[in-house]
Amino acid sequence: MNGAESLVRTLVKGGVEVCFANPGTSEMHFVGALDRVEGMRCVLGLFEGVCSGAADGYYRMTDKPASTLLHLGPGLANAAANLHNAKKAGSGVVNIVGEHALYHIKYDTPLTADIEGIARPFSHWVKTSPTSKTVAGDGALAIQAANVAPGQIATLILPADTAWGEAEGVADTPAAPAAEKPSKEAVVAAAKALKKPNSMLFIGGRALRARGLELAGKIAAKTGCKVQGAGGTARIERGAGRIPVLRLHFVIEQAQAQLKGTQQMVLCGAKAPFAFFAYPGKPSVLTPDGCETTVLCPVEGDILGSLEALAMELDAMNEKAAGVAQPSRPERPTGKFTLDGLGQALGATMPEGAIVVDESVTTGRGFFPFSAGAPPHDWLNNMGGSIGFGAPVAVGAAVACPDRKVICMIGDGSSMYTIQSLWTMARENLDVCVMIFSNRSYNILYSQLADVGAANPGPRAIDMLTLDRPTLQFTDLAKGMGVAAGKATNLEELTKQLTYAMSHKGPYLIDVIM
Amino acid sequence: MNGAESLVRTLVKGGVEVCFANPGTSEMHFVGALDRVEGMRCVLGLFEGVCSGAADGYYRMTDKPASTLLHLGPGLANAAANLHNAKKAGSGVVNIVGEHALYHIKYDTPLTADIEGIARPFSHWVKTSPTSKTVAGDGALAIQAANVAPGQIATLILPADTAWGEAEGVADTPAAPAAEKPSKEAVVAAAKALKKPNSMLFIGGRALRARGLELAGKIAAKTGCKVQGAGGTARIERGAGRIPVLRLHFVIEQAQAQLKGTQQMVLCGAKAPFAFFAYPGKPSVLTPDGCETTVLCPVEGDILGSLEALAMELDAMNEKAAGVAQPSRPERPTGKFTLDGLGQALGATMPEGAIVVDESVTTGRGFFPFSAGAPPHDWLNNMGGSIGFGAPVAVGAAVACPDRKVICMIGDGSSMYTIQSLWTMARENLDVCVMIFSNRSYNILYSQLADVGAANPGPRAIDMLTLDRPTLQFTDLAKGMGVAAGKATNLEELTKQLTYAMSHKGPYLIDVIM
């Protein structure tokens, strides 16, 4: 058994069952080993950002890391933006990055680069395996690192000679350390804070899964606190029967309105609320003046355990959770596109078990209320702010959950960073409905230009914000990559298209021409 | 004048007249300044790798750096693979990377990342400007760094508050240090080596421009040495009236055949020949055993000055350069596609002044002889080995040389990494003919799989090398981005399509279905 095969076997034994791959020469032994090892599904991406985003989506839906297979430094760099998003989301990923044979690196040939240096800003754990006999053990350590709560980015660099040399065998993956439980003092302090007037439980991470939300609802019922979701949320379990939460708004003034009057804030699985960007004359810290903040559980802590401890401390375990969403669907909307109408179309048509991947940017900010009573579903948001997130994450979610419909909402500008995802959807026949919101601009930047004090843009500035010259034809792009597609120019057409997409398996793209 | 405007004015004053941009919120002041400053052409890319590759192509054709405008760490990461290629090619680039306001960084909001850490592996020079008053001066230093021979990557990080704060004015760019001339000893040693039997002048960088080749031809006429181009070549001036050189072959055995028998090798603007990748049982060093190597001029030295000094030392300045190519074109080829036929089709149709950007990978390795006598043209190759190079470099070359036809040859696999380039070609009406060689595979990997000793691939391995499920329809992809396109399924159709493309201004794509 060579080093590459020992690594593939170690990955499979350690629970890593999917590899999102874009390999090259230095990874050919890993590829060659795939036919000798059962249990690793290998999914090809035409661009590395598809692979890293897919691993993010896969983790969010399974709580298990996938691997990526990447070609030296530039391949890793192409994956990096979506690794950034995965890192911020607390998704575990095991990157396998090929490298030249160790003896070859000193010749500084074209593809030679500082791979560890490239990996470090996007990884919690980085190692270059030194020999074919260490590859399996290092692979096991990479899996362990990826499994550290809430999920981490581990990057294992695999020199070609360690892949082709003789290995010693397969390694067992050590368990990751358990997430830390809250101290008694933290629980008592949080309970005390929430019992005061104008208190807020500010939650993120796995507090947004159904069980966490139920506990939050019990705590709210007992104390009267508000429950508020953080701005970025990796996965919210929503819909009928669940406790609805709103995310903190991107726009500072609206976020401030959501937080207004809060005098006690208890953080569980979320950092304190900060502005996404800085703007001249606007605050970075969004917590209201004078508000006291209590940390129940940090992002990497035992979030569900903390909520349970808090509910018990408050004697709230037998409370009926406050605000459970009742089943309800909006009417099918008609007429011209409006932002609310788009949210209604989605709420009216999404099936039970849908996984909504939301990179709708400016378009979808107000969609939540229209699907609060829809059948139970998941909603995934971008935690790292790097666009080009949606379609790759949808790929990974669809690979993770083949029996569920994935609905991927993307702004036209965002979609173009990783448009190659469509090809992987077609190749794997993934059950994804992609909605492109074509407003023919980087719409968010218009408001941002004003917000940073650069208002009244001239023609050259506007040229950097518009996508209308030429107009992107997403149905042609989809066709070019083997994905069926349709256009919608009003709400009737959109609900018709959505109804069709929801009733057919496989990828389908809707160009929502706004 | 704010910091951003002081930077734009400093760039223009320092000779940086083009900005390949994909901006976001943190760059809005830079964008806002564009309308107040004359002399900066801003070209939008839908993906950052388009911008960095375009800057590379622009430098190769002008010997002047362009700037890129990128959105924080992930935007820089998306640009990195083509920055890697530009760095290896010796292209000067000034990256302007937005950053959060300095006071905002500590809140670790979604887009916060270690931007300097991301920049370092791909940059010769990295700085975060600390205040709005230092931005102009730091911008001037970045231009100076980019101008260091043969051309360097300079990355200036621009925190939003240094962009919006008040500046002190515009800065003058100091001259970069002149490239070092060769020592008298090096020139004498090189002359002595080349006068011995079985000698070779091994050249790269600007030795491959017309004047360098002419000098090499004079030296060859005088000494009888062979002249051999390096494997990677940033830009070769070729065609009738010029001294033709071959590049060193990618395949080890063929490279060894080119170098066989060489007993004296003189390096000028190129490193000694090494294998691109390491393979089990094959050498990394390609110089024949016992061959003596003499460095006349390193990659960063005064290459043309060195060749002149050498020619003078050899009393060769009045020699007639050996091997000048005579005007000749191949016949228009007919019938089924063959690799030679493709080279003939190109040689038969390329117009005078064409700029050939070559990312044809396995397809185009043998094209050179068929265009050796074509009208004078330039030929640009990938120096860094990161695919996704061709179309972005073509964008930059076309912006640099609006009166010349750019012919961009790309393998289908390679094209998909930066396919967004087509949109920029359409938007700017760039005069680029894109030929996609559709062999529906990462064809190079089949041979590589065998070369690394992983022969006889099974179905899972083969699945990682093939692009035929689904088949990419490049004419649809082009249409989706506003570029006219046609298909060619044999050599008659190809020459017809090429003839059409050469006689029309503007972008055109030919899907060469092999």
Summarize the structure in words.
The structure is a homodimer of 514-residue chains. With 514 residues, the first copy, chain A, is an alpha/beta fold. Chain A starts with a helix and ends with a strand. Chain A has helices at 3-13, 28-33, 48-62, 72-89, 115-119, 135-146, 160-164, 184-195, 210-223, 252-259, 303-313, 339-349, 368-371, 390-400, 412-415, 421-427, 443-451, 459-463, 474-480, 491-503; strands at residues 18-21, 41-44, 66-70, 93-99, 125-128, 153-159, 199-203, 226-229, 236-238, 264-268, 292-297, 355-359, 377-381, 406-411, 432-438, 484-488, 508-513. The model of chain A has no long low-confidence stretch (mean pLDDT 96). In chain A, helix 13 (368-371) links the parallel strand 12 (355-359) and strand 13. A seven-stranded mixed sheet of chain A has the order 9-13-12-14-15-17-16, sandwiched between helices. Chain A is built from 20 helices and 17 strands. The radius of gyration of chain A is 23 Å and the shape is globular. Chain A folds into three domains: 3-164, Thiamin diphosphate (ThDP)-binding fold, Pyr/PP domains (Rossmann fold, 3-Layer(aba) Sandwich), CATH 3.40.50; 184-313, 3-Layer(aba) Sandwich (Rossmann fold); 339-513, Rossmann fold (3-Layer(aba) Sandwich), CATH 3.40.50.970.
Number of domains of chain A: 3
Oligomerization state: homodimer
- For the termini of chain A, the CA-CA separation is 56 Å
Secondary structure class of chain A reads alpha/beta
Spatial arrangement of strands, main beta sheet of chain A: 9-13-12-14-15-17-16
If you average the pLDDT of chain A, what whole number results?
96
Number of strands of chain A: 17
